[in-house]
Amino acid sequence: MSRFSGVLQLTDLDDFITPSQAKDGSYFQLEEDGTEQKLQKVEITLADCLACSGCITSAESVLITQQSQEELIRVFEDNKILKSQGKLQEAKLIIVSVSIQPILSLAIRYNLLPNDCAAKLVQYFKKLGADMVIDMTVADDFALLESQREFIRRYRATESDGIRNVLPMLASSCPGWVCYAEKTHGDYILPYISTTKSPQQIMGSLVKHWVGRNLGNRQIYHVTVMPCYDKKLEAAREDFFSEETQSRDVDCVITAIELEQMLQKDEISLDSLENSAFSQPWLLKEDHDVTPSLTRHIGSGSGGFADHIFRYAAKELFGEELEKLEYKSLRNPDFREVILIKEEKILLRFAIANGFRNIQNLVQKLKRGKSQYQYVEVMACPSGCLNGGAQVRPKEGSSVKELTTLLETLYNSLPCKSPEENKSVGELYDSWLGGQESDKCNAVLHTQYHAVEKAMNALNIKW
Ligand code: SF4
């Protein structure tokens, strides 16, 4: 960290503060003579958070009380009491949606196969009092399909109408990145960010609106299981508060590391639990319950956005069916690009930028008009979501790098499935959204961003 004309400049942005750096919850300044001085606590509100995977994402997570394990347990307990008193109409329908990265993180922690880990997590949540546990792949698929089409719309708008500020399209599924863009680069960068909601928030709309309506308008408490604390900030955004249900689309986000703590507190080893099935409430006519059979998307472990959109665009715009994509690492392995060349002309140039160091470089290039990309999968965590800030920590003697490699290997061992193959998504487009590209589709699956005035950055930190 160095000083520049009265403001602080953070230079090593990938090094977030972990709880292990604090002694007894306190931080100390090391003086030149070797003595330590306990630092005063600083009050930081959510409005000050840059979602840099630093403060809120580790030691200060307790600030988000509505998003805590304690709140989750309280809701489960209250619901059990209501049910035991026969007040079924007052009891909430508790639905838990689980994403792939925390499943893999816990699978490694408890030495389980991914599908067994998912099935045992279902059983754990059912024991706590969940009414349904759902695999979030359906929302991942919606996000990819919407992003693909959004890219084509933006590309054509640039080509035919010469509309500026629509390319490159920047990924929107990482709240760490979105929050940083809103608070530091405001109106300049926001038009480039894809309006497609993240999978978590698409799941929120699906659960609160479609499932709620089709299961007798019950009051739903929706929990998501995610790889980072930044997803709590995303769930808490005003844009995701519904006037209709008078609630947020995601009420509580629980991370892999918090789940590990909950299991430890309950003295439960995940591997000792029975297997249980995921629910698929949109399968109204058939059996709702399905044994976990996890799949992955081709491309990165952060959802494969760059890969999918690249392939789709190559086919849709240039009639090219592509096999395996070859990415080239540029400055570092966390900045990779892929290009489509025909007759010595570059038709498409996409990139994946992980970690704040690469994000900063990308933003500076964009501001100088030097970016050559049409799409960038931007993710705040180095190595992306598999290495999310709230995944289970490495075992003693093992490094984050080794654990990330393990997670990537496990992810790549899952069978691949394309979003177009998901029949449920096709049916939901019709039954829920009135078809692809409909007005309802745009209203439900897309969102907006808001530039935050610089004055609100209470710490006066320069990024
Ligand atoms: S890269 Fe993924 S895990 Fe990390 S902050 Fe973004 S969404 Fe969360």
TrEMBL record:
Gene3D superfamilies recorded: 3.40.50.1780, Fe-only Hydrogenase (Larger Subunit), Chain L, domain 3
Keywords attached to this entry: 4Fe-4S, Iron, Iron-sulfur, Metal-binding
Highest taxon in the source lineage: Eukaryota
A Pfam cross-reference name: Fe_hyd_lg_C
Matches recorded under InterPro entries: Cytosolic_Fe-S_CAF (IPR050340), Fe_hydrogenase (IPR009016), Fe_hydrogenase_lsu_C (IPR004108), Fe_hydrogenase_ssu (IPR003149)
A molecular function GO annotation: 4 iron, 4 sulfur cluster binding
All residue ranges annotated as the Iron hydrogenase small subunit domain in the record: 397-453
Function: Component of the cytosolic iron-sulfur (Fe/S) protein assembly machinery. Required for maturation of extramitochondrial Fe/S proteins.
Protein family membership: Belongs to the NARF family.
Protein name from the UniProt record: Iron hydrogenase small subunit domain-containing protein
Organism the protein comes from: Rhamnusium bicolor
Classification of source organism: Eukaryota, Metazoa, Ecdysozoa, Arthropoda, Hexapoda
